[in-house]
Write a structure and sequence with these properties.
Elements (H helix, E strand, L loop, with lengths): L7 H4 L9 E2 L23 E5 L4 E7 L8 E6 L2 E6 L24 E6 L3 E9 L2 E8 L14
Length: 149
């Protein structure tokens, strides 16, 4: 008899979830238990920073790119950062590269956001893209003390 149990692991990589999500960190208090295995694209390198209980920051090293090369798309629950196709030709045709070690290639990075997390702003400075996020919890969803009558 054929096993009809769905294989959820092939659909969603739970090991990568803490590395690509914002606002769920209360679920993953001990990130050491979620070791990332397998090959996945590490370009461009990024940092995911928790600044305080409600503020987060994504830092992404995008050397060689400018504002026009990067598109940031936000919708509730999702943040996608991507670059367009980069020219393989040097900006100045009379340059001959002896070594070209600064990678400039197309990328797409997807981050899963908690429903309460919004993008506040973004900045590109000195080859570092910084995106500030904030968790906004409506008053009706915040914990409240219930008085006993």
């Amino acid at each position: 008899m054929k096993d009809l149990t769905p294989n959820f692991e092939s659909k969603f990589d739970f090991m990568r979830f803490p590395l690509m999500s914002v606002g769920f960190d209360h679920i993953f208090k001990n990130r050491d238990q979620f070791r990332v295995s397998g090959n996945f694209d590490t370009y461009p390198p990024y940092n995911l920073v928790k600044l305080d209980e409600y503020k987060y920051m994504i830092e992404m090293a995008v050397a060689g790119l400018n504002k026009e090369d990067i598109k940031i798309m936000y919708e509730p629950g999702s943040l996608v950062i991507e670059s367009g196709d980069q020219d393989s030709e040097p900006d100045e045709p009379d340059l001959t590269y002896l070594h070209k070690g600064i990678a400039v290639r197309r990328f797409v990075k997807r981050f899963t956001l908690s429903d309460a997390v919004i993008v506040v702003d973004s900045e590109l400075k000195d080859g570092m893209l910084t995106i500030h996020l904030e968790k906004h919890i409506p008053d009706e969803l915040k914990p409240k003390l219930i008085e006993i009558n």
